[in-house]
Amino acid sequence: MERGGTVYIITNKHHTVFYVGVTSELVYRIIEHRDKLYPKSFSAKYNVSKLVYYEHFASIKEAIEREKYLKGKVRKFKLDLIETMNPEWRDLAEDVLKW
User: Fold this and answer.
1) Proportion of the chain above pLDDT 70, given as a percent
2) DSSP structure string for 8-65
3) d(CA 17, CA 3)
4) Residue 74 has pLDDT above 60, yes or no
5) For residues 17 and 71, what is the distance between their CA atoms, to the nearest angstrom?
6) Which of 20, 6, 26 is nearest to 78 (CA)?
7) For 38, 51, 61, 72, which has the most beta carbons within 10 A of its beta carbon?
8) Per-domain residue ranges for the chain?
């Protein structure tokens, strides 16, 4: 049985930088971003750890396809997507980390 996957968007405190990622373990991935487990990574360098959007998929393959699609979109598209799910720009990690 294939594991599912999650596409997510994280941002910084001022919402000026976006990072689109994919993972099979969202809880652990968010913790890695917050704790700057990889200090030379993009998210650590730009202090990007606020989870503002995520989507679950039945397969990791679907999630990877969606990640590539989102990465190819302009900033306005991502803003609209985030505001559809999270109009208050709340840090959704608070909910995710309770899983």
Assistant:
1) 97
2) EEEE-TTS--EEEEEES-HHHHHHHHHTTSSTTSHHHHTT--EEEEEEEESSHHHHHH
3) 29
4) yes
5) 13
6) 20
7) 51
8) 5-96
